[in-house]
Amino acid sequence: MKILIVDDEPHLRMLIQQTLEELEDEGVELLTAANGDEALDSIRGEQPNLVFLDVMMPRRNGFDVCHIVKNELGLTHIHIILLTAKGQEFDRQRGQEVGADLYMTKPFDPDALLAKARAVLGL
What we know:
Elements (H helix, E strand, L loop, with lengths): L1 E5 L3 H11 L8 E5 L2 H11 L3 E5 L7 H11 L6 E6 L4 H9 L4 E4 L4 H12 L2
Parallel strand pairs: 1-2, 1-3, 3-4, 4-5
């Protein structure tokens, strides 16, 4: 099983990675990407089970990446959780429209993030 962590801010990527690293003991591989283009390359090549995807990124934002994965690539089995500092209803609706499975706002509770990953992966 694989989890892809996508965020353009290195410290946030590391924080999410540290939050989820205990899953490595259960056979989960943690992958990271720093932007939307890297994320798409990784998703195509690695086919992760779960993607924690930042919305606000340069070049290609999380909404675009999610739309491409779910609609253009047809990878509907990949569970995508959008992470964003924006909690407005408009953003939630946009997340649903592009096919996101869940929407979490930053700052997030590390325990909640880990619990979501466990639930999605069935651990």
